[in-house]
């Protein structure tokens, strides 16, 4: 019997609830395909600060490093917002990304037919459907460049941050984008600000070089300000968007929001090998934590991605996705995606429904 | 009779057409209020590259410096896209901004009742109205920081750009935001990425200090990724957004697009004194240039802003705004904002209608 080690970081707030449900789903699917999953739960984020005094204990990182994949809930909350830079829950995310070498964040953004009503965009805009993938560079750029304070000649306090990218970093993420596009609509849009940034100009050069190895994939370029507009105006034009860490942060959140159902969206953070970290894109939502209100579907779909990309079990992933779709078709909704005429259910019940549909 | 010197930069593409019309509107209003406007037309952008071999000739900058205000059309187009960094039409914009010291870009984003149908957002989202002001820092940050290329130890080409802000720059733009908020809904949202960027943390410190002088204005903070979502989810929550050059570039374009009527939006770029540069937020739209298809209303409304802020003629500005609204109420629309049941008119005719309504 095949066995996989999964590091599990429920994290804070609703991360705990949705992860518990996703684990049940994973166990059921594992049983069906006769693989054994060994889960090791570890702390990161606010709960780790409370327990260990630091957002990412070395032991947590180590457990993750020794596993086949990581399932992450959500970290952070107002409880820890007063803490200084290095003691904030978000540091756990950055530490996991860099510590595990997860340089590519893949965020599929899709509007489910059943949930079109939840989109803030007019029907006329989304009638062609929205199904795009944002490939965000995750371990470079201004997130990890030098930063600090200085004083100007006039005596003013000054602060700086550096956006830095090298050929190697750009080429490897570009490959992720082109490979993904091959399995989709074969179109890659590089989003940058090449009319201003030198780093963007390097991105254009390197991505154009990588594109030569993918003659079957179309490459086009778009400035980030225009991309922010086009996502609202005509999201159907996009297939795969590849971009820097900072622009990806902004655009992937904007793109998620146009679906109107953030509680449905999963993401993976990966590297060259099959290892990856999987998490819902929603936050820890402390205001609804522990109230059986959270939508567990994004985390369940994150688990599906984990099966597909880290365990090589595409069929298991399809099973989970189909179960989720069938529950939606049956008309069940958590509060965040509820609309007139559908049946509102809580976190636990939604989990049971997916398990039953499996 | 009062006399004002106005530098006029029609620029490229539809910039030329819409500016010609705005000048007529300005002349009519000037006559009503018995002021004399002396227009000096100068070249910048693509047309300046064609004529002088450079996007911003020194003589253009000088004419602007010696004027009371600048009215700018739009610059750029695919014709000049192949040119290198310093020879691109956009360089004219950057040169004007820094050369004239225009550190604050004010971009009002408003959905006209008559044009709600044009918004890509659902009626339920915009029913509370959208009326916000983006105050974007315009002469600092990563747009003007050091940038360049290096080589990594492994021999990879590497590129960097620096985001740099000092206290002075942040405090002065913050003042613009708070002053503007006082005349509006008294709410300022600082958009940044303070969980990552040191420069954002300095923004928070300095803006909080400035806020002390405006106890009547509410200040809150939002991360840029969240702001990109909230603009789509609930734009009515915003009054004044103040942010860095780069984030402002992205968010102001996104915010403009949610109105669905970019051909209606004006902007001003200002400094401490009354001098300013006024321009529509739309581009040069070379595809429709010279076809009498462009919407001249954004440029007409830019002229209104020029009267108000640089010439101290608020009443004249109101006249222009009322004329534009009345033409919309009468049901006239250029193609970009046309919907079933309204009357489509060209650029020239739209200009005549506004002149008639004045
Ligand atoms: C919490 C924050 C540091 C993080 C980021 O900016 O990467 C988050 O916004 C995300 O996108 O995962
Ligand atoms: C053309 C470009 C350099 C410019 C900018 O990024 O500032 C434009 O996008 C704008 O917003 O005026």
Automatic annotation (TrEMBL), chains A, B:
Which reaction equations make up its catalytic activity?
(2R,3S)-3-isopropylmalate + NAD(+) = 4-methyl-2-oxopentanoate + CO2 + NADH
One GO molecular function term of this record is: 3-isopropylmalate dehydrogenase activity
Query: What is the cofactor note?
Result: Binds 1 Mg(2+) or Mn(2+) ion per subunit.
For this protein, the record's InterPro entries field holds: IsoCit/isopropylmalate_DH_CS, IsoPropMal-DH-like_dom, Isopropylmalate_DH
Keywords for this protein:
Amino-acid biosynthesis, Branched-chain amino acid biosynthesis, Cytoplasm, Leucine biosynthesis, Magnesium, Manganese, Metal-binding, NAD, Oxidoreductase
Entry binding sites for NAD(+): 77-90, 283-295
Cofactor dependence is on: Mn(2+); Mg(2+)
One Pfam entry for this protein is Iso_dh
Gene3D superfamilies for the chain: Isopropylmalate Dehydrogenase (3.40.718.10)
Domain annotation Isopropylmalate dehydrogenase-like: ranges: 5-354
Q: Which domain of life is it from?
A: Bacteria
User: Subunit structure, per the record?
Assistant: Homodimer.
Enumerate the NCBIfam families for this protein.
Answer: leuB (TIGR00169)
Q: Which family does it belong to?
A: Belongs to the isocitrate and isopropylmalate dehydrogenases family. LeuB type 1 subfamily.
This chain belongs to the protein called: 3-isopropylmalate dehydrogenase
Species for this entry: Propionispora hippei DSM 15287
